[in-house]
Amino acid sequence: MKKMVLILFFLFLPVLLPLNIMAQDNKELLDQIRQIINIEPTPCQDKKGCYCLEFTAKADSPLPLRYAKCQFCPVEVHVGRIILAFKSWDRDGNKVDEGRFINGKMDDLWTSWHPNGVKAGESNYRTGKQTGQFTTWHDNGQIAVQGYHKDDVANGEWSYWDKTGRLTKKLVWDNGKLLSKEEFK
Predict the structure, then answer these.
(1) Using CB atoms within 10 A as the burial measure, which of 14, 60, 87, 167 is most buried?
(2) Half-sphere exposure of 128 (CA within 13 A, CB side)
(3) Rounded (10°) CA dihedral 53, 84, 12, 97
(4) CB–CB of 112/5 below 8 Å?
(5) Which structural domain, as residue segments, surrounds residue 174?
(6) Do 163 and 114 belong to one domain?
(7) What whole-number distance in Å separates Cα of residue 110 and Cα of residue 19?
(8) Predicted model pTM
(9) Residues 122, 148: one domain?
(10) 97 plus 10 within the same structural domain
(11) Residues 48 and 96 in one domain
């Protein structure tokens, strides 16, 4: 899931910038959104105080781009600390990702969904790094992978299941170093 979110996030980074739409008293908030995206957001029609991005990706694009609309809502704005709630949808209106940015970095729980609406993954982030337990699911709702990261590095036990729910593999990591691998038939 992290790779999918980061691929989508970084693919849009160079495509997306200039913003001059917020009031000067929201300059810090504006600067923070500029660090995250680079498409001009507009005030959301349905959420007061939030800013939205809407764009169209070609249906036949070879890139894994599912975003058609993104929304950034300030949760907390103080000098030195800005929390933005982030939500994204595909061109059919299905939710793609939801999470928070703190000072321009992914933070807290991030959730993503498959195009059919089934949860695809949950990961925890601290200052932009995946940390703690993550879980991914197959598009039929069966768990696919569960494991742990410590500062973006594989750590602890990772378990893998097939689409029927059968455990297929277990890996044990220690700070990015594979200690053991067990496969099940």
Answers:
(1) 87
(2) 7
(3) -90
(4) yes
(5) 142-185
(6) no
(7) 25
(8) 0.73
(9) no
(10) yes
(11) yes
